[in-house]
Known about the structure:
- The structure is a homodimer.
- By secondary structure, chain A is of the alpha/beta class.
Amino acid sequence: MNITILGGGGFLGQKLAARLAADGALGGTPVSSLTLFDLHAPPVPKAAFPIHTLGGDVAALPDAAIPAGTDVVFHLAAVVSAAAEADYDLGRRVNVRGTDAVIDACRKLAKPPRVVFTSSIASFSGGQTAILGDQARQLPANSYGAQKAAAELFLLDATRRGFLDAVCLRLPTVIVRPGRPNKAASSFFSSIVREPLLGLATDLPVADDFKVWVSSPRSALGWLMHAATMDTAALGLDRSINPPGISVTVGAIVAALDQVRQGASTLINRAPDPAIEAIVAGWPAGFETDRARGLGFAPNEDLVTLVRSFVADDLEATRAERG
Amino acid sequence: MNITILGGGGFLGQKLAARLAADGALGGTPVSSLTLFDLHAPPVPKAAFPIHTLGGDVAALPDAAIPAGTDVVFHLAAVVSAAAEADYDLGRRVNVRGTDAVIDACRKLAKPPRVVFTSSIASFSGGQTAILGDQARQLPANSYGAQKAAAELFLLDATRRGFLDAVCLRLPTVIVRPGRPNKAASSFFSSIVREPLLGLATDLPVADDFKVWVSSPRSALGWLMHAATMDTAALGLDRSINPPGISVTVGAIVAALDQVRQGASTLINRAPDPAIEAIVAGWPAGFETDRARGLGFAPNEDLVTLVRSFVADDLEATRAERG
């Protein structure tokens, strides 16, 4: 199995590459080669199969990023929410033109590859009172979400035309992200766990009773791998899936933090930020995920397990990286 | 009021230009200038105000197409359904890149113009049993529909950002179209009325009990003009409207034809065409249009009036054009 990860230098891309390198297989099929593509050539994990790494603009995707014989493309390359809001042209270039470039690369292949695309709950609105069903309409209140919803439409159409075989996952807010705070409006949902565990103070821009739809990196990784190998015949025309995250309050995240590291939450400063809240408050608080569960997507773990997983998987590497 | 019609050489574009020229005003405001843009510079009606005409590629829109001071843009430029299905790249270029070019032109203006965009029921699926509500999800089963749905998302987002002030009308199948059969999969819905009235034989590729959501050119024109001048404050984030067409069977269209011209339907040959049916059978048979009616969009006339309007408005010009 020949695999490409676009956005292979990012948080999920690197975790996925490491997992494929460790397993040597995906869905029981041995991995023959892996290609990692990002703005800059991503780091390469140790593996028993060849790994190619290359850098560039996803909207001007080089042929080598999705070479002949590619079976699976993980299309994770994106400009995130606050950055796409700050720079409309950049968001359009990466999130829309980038997806068109992926479609065009797949059209050149002899066999339509599976394409696993990370869309986002930011493509929906509805806000704190909304629990959305599988047939909910995407009415995005931010450019990132609009671009992701449009990319889903193009991938649905490309699948119908036989150019590729897409599964689009509208990922919840993934916490806890390792590394540093980033430009996503949702960055603070990770920071309120990660920073205190590093002994650092952090700001909480929304109230404790603010509800958010989250998943862990472990669950997101599991969903990506399931999407890459599942039987897509049952999907029909509709190639988009709301995977089974969990709807939690910020207060519950803080409580889980304290349960894992007593008193850690004293490093959290309540600092309301209307600009951040204006973006995240538009996202729905939860989803009914009957379709995803019926298609074999595993439920997310509970919050305490999620915080413990961050400590086990990422805390030391994050501490080392940040010095 | 300075007005631009993109796709100004097309069927609705020419009707709209003629109407503006005749009225000298839109929504009670005098027209100061009109710019007509299409692939080739469109014909210009006689008017008391200056009319500029220019030709080119909408995806590389010249500045003169939406000049400084433009108040209203009718964005009707499109590659239609069967043509977008036959040529994926052309459909993407005109229907998606073209809309991006319109957005970029509007961003340059000092005041965000009203943009009236013609989307389509082809952006929905559901088929013969579906009566869709205002919150129905767009799950297009053809490239044209996917491109139109994506363009709606970009216009919604551009409105939210303050680049422009969009109203997107998901037009029903508009019958009776003048002129010749075209590459739209829905072309036959007009041909079965127009061709017999010209004394010409025509093929009917679906069964008589096939249901279709239609509107007349007169109604479509009325909706375009209402969308150009209505108060958009009530729309909120959601800039897309399903206007109040009528759900009819092909048999009812044929009966209305015979009521207007006795025996005309003997020129209709039942000639099932699975390729045509595969496209149109995916479109929903009807819509609930509470939102549109609440926003002041007038209901469509009945079928007999619709056929009589074609005879009154377009039959002689079509006969002359086709020789």
